[in-house]
Amino acid sequence: KFAAFAAALFLAGGAFAAEPVKVETENTMMLFEREQSGSGERLYLRHFGPKIADEAGALALAVKSGPISSLGTDNPLAYPVFGESGRWINRFGGLKVTHDNGTVTLDLIVEKIERDGEALKVRWRDAVHDFRVIQTFRPRADADVVETWVELVNGEKGAVRISRMSSFALVFPMLANDWRLMSLTGEWGSEGEVVDKPIERGRRIVLDSRSGIRDAWHNNPAFMLSIGGPSTETDGRVIGCALCWSGAWEMSFRRSEVDLLEVVGGPANVAGDYVLDS
């Protein structure tokens, strides 16, 4: 059985595979790199921004870890998970489960990457357990937007408890000395008030539904990130996101000590863990 969770992203303003993996809209490109690492193949997000012609050059200049990640830099996986070894960035990941044998860690490796029309499907599997994640990135032809969601498939003998199940868990592969978060909050009679604040180094900001049952009563499940300074309605470099979920939700933003930004969002388990039967 499986469960699925979705979101939509849009943007304004080592040895690598011979054929880079990419998702493109009219103006935007997500560029991924496949690498052999540890127990199997991994997929890393190397570029998210305007379309570029020199893909090999972009991969060569992408943020990557060295032999010792003492400064907190690391390879930003396309979908990091809790307990995966060697992660400095997004160590807690977007997914945390308890397997039927009581183990709480995951080690996702790429089983297959395929195309479904314009959509990119990444099929991950745990290196030890019969547990799979299907991650989809689908560009929208009618807008400069990439939809992304995950499906969880349990093939283990018993049920798996899901403590965290984010629709996306990305480390944006771009450095900026100024990150700002714009979101909407408010109650009856004052809905949609704009909150604009900086994301400081080493800090984490959390947005959630607060009510537990209404997705947009106190906070709205959407945000805009300004990169490199404040943005206006006519100027600036901005990443926006809207979470497509009708229940309780949570999104978090963590800026590393070297100015990379981790963004995680999806359903919130405010009433307890979900149980995914075998």
Itemize the secondary structure elements and their pairings.
Layout: E1 2-12, E2 21-24, E3 28-37, E4 40-50, H1 55-61, E5 95-98, E6 108-116, E7 119-126, E8 131-139, E9 145-154, E10 160-165, E11 168-172, E12 179-185, E13 193-198, E14 204-208, E15 222-227, E16 238-244, E17 249-255, E18 261-267, E19 274-276
Structural class: mainly beta
Largest sheet strand order: 6-7-8-9-1-16-15-12-13
What's the rounded overall pLDDT mean? 83
Shape: globular
Give the count of helical stretches. 1
The percent range for helix content is under 10%
What pattern of helices and strands is seen along the backbone?
EEEEHEEEEEEEEEEEEEEE
Query: Which runs of at least 5 residues are low in confidence (pLDDT < 50)?
Result: 14-18, 66-73
Question: Largest beta sheet, briefly?
Answer: 9 strands, antiparallel
- Straight-line N-to-C gap: 6 Å
Count all strands and give the number. Answer: 19
CA radius of gyration is 18 Å
- Beta percentage is over 45%
Short précis:
The protein is mainly β and 278 residues long. It has one helix spanning 55-61; strands at 2-12, 21-24, 28-37, 40-50, 95-98, 108-116, 119-126, 131-139, 145-154, 160-165, 168-172, 179-185, 193-198, 204-208, 222-227, 238-244, 249-255, 261-267, 274-276.
Description of the structure:
With 278 residues, the protein is mostly beta strands. The chain has one helix at residues 55-61, and strands spanning 2-12, 21-24, 28-37, 40-50, 95-98, 108-116, 119-126, 131-139, 145-154, 160-165, 168-172, 179-185, 193-198, 204-208, 222-227, 238-244, 249-255, 261-267, 274-276. Strands 6-7-8-9-1-16-15-12-13 form a 9-stranded antiparallel β-sheet, with no helix packed on it. The chain has a 4-stranded antiparallel β-sheet with strand order 11-18-17-14, with no helix packed on it. A 3-stranded antiparallel β-sheet has the order 2-3-4. The chain is globular. The protein starts with a strand and ends with a strand. Residues 14-18 and 66-73 have low confidence and may be disordered.
